User: Fold these one by one.
Assistant:
Number 1:
Amino acid sequence: TQLLEQSPQFLSIQEGENLTVYCNSSSVFSSLQWYRQEPGEGPVLLVTVVTGGEVKKLKRLTFQFGDARKDSSLHITAAQTGDTGLYLCAGRNTDKLIFGTGTRLQVFP
Amino acid sequence: GAVVSQHPSWVICKSGTSVKIECRSLDFQATTMFWYRQFPKQSLMLMATSNEGSKATYEQGVEKDKFLINHASLTLSTLTVTSAHPEDSSFYICSARKLNYGYTFGSGTRLTVV
């Protein structure tokens, strides 16, 4: 069974702080995606990383794919209340997308 | 962009009855559709993968006789929860994928069995 462990599980911070979420696995994935999910909705894609060592930036969000394509991180700079949500990494294996355990982020004003 | 419509968005049913959830790709033909289940404060767990015209492939631990999946066309997949019980109450999410494209998720269906 492929497992994608995310840490931390919960994160509660104040607006303006920086944070990093980690996604680790013992398996190699052909690509890895990060999603954000709001309560009662489906997950929304933030980014896809494909190449080992790849770094992608999306405004205040920086995503990194590990060299061995087994792990990834999401860094948010100067968090805002609008960043609150459930962050999920998902690894692609053949046609399947396997989701990580999730990180629930709460940003307080 | 690719849009996936899931219906209904919420449903309440009595224990022992069956419930059908529809997942439609509105502007593309999906080679594969996926069904996930999400319990409160947890992540998405893949239940099954379905390809049009063939039997669904279920993940380990998912009862195929309880969760019937039909993928009759390239734009429609249905999940039927048979003889539902309170422990089946969950958030069910579908995803559709077109060959060489990414995954598009529906907005989910909250099932409550009373």
Number 2:
Amino acid sequence: ILNVEQSPQSLHVQEGDSTNFTCSFPSSNFYALHWYRWETAKSPEALFVMTLNGDEKKKGRISATLNTKEGYSYLYIKGSQPEDSATYLCAFGTQGGSEKLVFGKGTKLTVNP
Amino acid sequence: EPEVTQTPSHQVTQMGQEVILRCVPISNHLYFYWYRQILGQKVEFLVSFYNNEISEKSEIFDDQFSVERPDGSNFTLKIRSTKLEDSAMYFCASSLPLGGRETQYFGPGTRLLVL
């Protein structure tokens, strides 16, 4: 059974702090790793799709790295703002069949002003 | 920017009743998915749909569940006889090509409560 784990489960930071969290996944048969940002009552917003070992992607103050050999990805937020408060989900993209996503439980980030 | 929409946003139903959850995927997308998240648990895959047929389904997706694309725009999930454990947030998603390495675009979800 494919298992994706995220840590920490929740995080409280002050405005202006930089923060990071982790997604762990099986390193064998790696295909793709997705990051989403999900605010309550809104659609999960796609941040990144990462496919190659060593990939680094950036979108504004948010960036992500990928290590497929050891099975982890980090998401970094530089200079957190209250509007960054959300749940950040990672999902393993499976190969074959319908290529469904297998999700972690998410990291809930709260940025205090 | 195109987006996936879902209706209703919330639905409360009695155990044993049928519910239909509706989704309008992004118009030129070809692959459609339903996922759900029971409160406090992971988002989990239910079913995928391509070319007017189910391409994959999970163990959760038993005979009580069905999906349909009744016209060119809507994609529906029907639960025939709801159970208490069907209470969850149901997400629809779509992608243009297959979604393992491509972005799957999610709707805002329908929160289903079965009493």
